[in-house]
Design a protein that fits this description.
homodimer; about 375 residues; alpha/beta; Aspartate Aminotransferase, domain 2; Aspartate Aminotransferase, domain 1; 2 domains; seven-stranded mixed sheet; 9 helices
Chain lengths: ~375, ~375
Amino acid sequence: MRPYNFSAGPATLPQAVLQQAADEMLDWQGSGMSVMEMSHRSKEFSSIYEHAEQTLRELLAVPGHYKILFMQGGGLAENAIVPLNLIHRTGKADFIITGSWSAKSLNEARKYGDVHEAASNSSSHGHYKPRTWLPSQETWKIRQDAAYLHICGNETIDGIEFFEWPCLPEQIPLVVDASSHILSRPLDVSRFGLIFAGAQKNIGPAGLTIVIVREDLIGHALPVCPSAFDYKIVADNNSMFNTPPTYAIYIAGLVFDWIKSCGGLRAIEQTNLSKANLLYAALDKSSFYHNPVDPQCRSRMNIPFFLKDPSRNEAFLSGAREAGLLQLKGHKSVGGMRASLYNAMPLAGVQSLVHYLEDFEKRHA
Amino acid sequence: MRPYNFSAGPATLPQAVLQQAADEMLDWQGSGMSVMEMSHRSKEFSSIYEHAEQTLRELLAVPGHYKILFMQGGGLAENAIVPLNLIHRTGKADFIITGSWSAKSLNEARKYGDVHEAASNSSSHGHYKPRTWLPSQETWKIRQDAAYLHICGNETIDGIEFFEWPCLPEQIPLVVDASSHILSRPLDVSRFGLIFAGAQKNIGPAGLTIVIVREDLIGHALPVCPSAFDYKIVADNNSMFNTPPTYAIYIAGLVFDWIKSCGGLRAIEQTNLSKANLLYAALDKSSFYHNPVDPQCRSRMNIPFFLKDPSRNEAFLSGAREAGLLQLKGHKSVGGMRASLYNAMPLAGVQSLVHYLEDFEKRHA
């Protein structure tokens, strides 16, 4: 049996997807080529691309007036690419700061216009402290002339997730960094102007970025925007202005098929709820571990937790590895542990982790 | 037996590399993880990354004062990223125009400064005509205050390759787009300020870009340069500021190992010479096919050729497919045929193509 891999990303993938990729590595469906070896303009790769795009559109019920773009650079590059494409209208962008990722997004956008922190959950200055709550929408101070509002749907490091989307004035499109929660549950795409997500959590290999953008927001890039990152050029060329990351798109398509075979996003959400509830319950009933996040906004995808006695961290991690539970170390900025429960983590993996938590506590409490 | 794949890129890969990738897909060397599933900061992936970087450094004998960066976006993104990082010193960049790729590079750089065509092999205005020769260096009109000079080492569409590198004034670093000839022969890295290459020809999967840059050229990015594409930030973070395309880097490392096992770049060059000579000889002795490029600068990697009677093109291509010779159709901008003979194309593949050329001519001349 393969061990359970709790990495925050790049992250565990469905075993069936990896098996199919291995089987097709030297010869994709009788073509005589690996997918890696196909011209991006060949009829073989075109069929792979169109299938992936269509399946994603179907899974998320993406409305017809939204484009799906397959790009490169990850979430960090989008922190620049989004303002390069969207800030033009007024030169202003507002941000809700809920953790490390949204803070990085604001800092990067500063290069391209006037940025503003409309709300924040920071309780400290200077040394970084874990964020544990979401500022309620009534407290947000959004500028009426902001070209867009940016939020991070799930803060991977802090373990904080949005479950309700804000209502904004019509002229202010909502931009969401959905890197670490996309496809973990249904999403009403029509609530957003733009959704972006690095692939390396719920979609596929690192090096692919998905952008879903409302058509009216396309075509207004700043003159300094590199052509390869101008949404209009990318959209007009079906993501083939520059050679796209073809193999990553192929794997993403297999993952989309796998999600469909699981019953789609409603079924996936139920499993993700069961997994997260199981782990939070185990942490909450223990006095040996704890998770500091407000239960209202606890992430279903990334669950940071801390041993009350951090001197046991190393023993915890090496015991976990021996038990076949991999990559549980917390992000270096906050320490402790983190279990990422993306779609491809089976319930059995979380059961196994809970069993280990209880056993370790018994032996060390 | 697998068919021979003459795609210009993404392109054929060594069968041994694909086989190893298939074998390790579900479990990389007992780690219990696919390489796709590893955190980029894990010790497992760090070892893969360092091995790939070291092997590339060894193959090209990269001097210690050059950094090797693993980036995203391909050659087309570098057309913006290079001026964003290098044009600052004087705001001017000069270009030698030898085909489609160098022309695209100049056009993109226009966004970031004052660009200048120092030489060109264009013989036409308006409608695109194949380029067939290289302007000799004595005719180049380089501005003494250019921040750098850009050349395309091998024009993939036109089939024109540089075999001698220009000598420039010390203050003007030479930038080469080496996307389609890197690792096909030894390269004296010290002659260049910067070398960039999309991976999808001689290195690995699309979605990875290699940049080799002299240290003194790093650290001068324009303020509008996205952080993810600022060479200093990429270098200071060992290409892990944004999550790198980890699986593509793993495949690239396997390809680097394969080149080493072939005897390194001198041995690879000998094979590439034999392959190209064989095909050019077959084309030149025929009155049925022709290649219009000056023999002094004929590409060893991409060999465009034309049937004198283009009405036979479709029959030629479908017969080739039946003979197990794939992706021979020429680029849409020039038509005709193109055989790309990258490192992973064995001599037997070119022999097979030559046999087919002769046979088709016999049947249709």
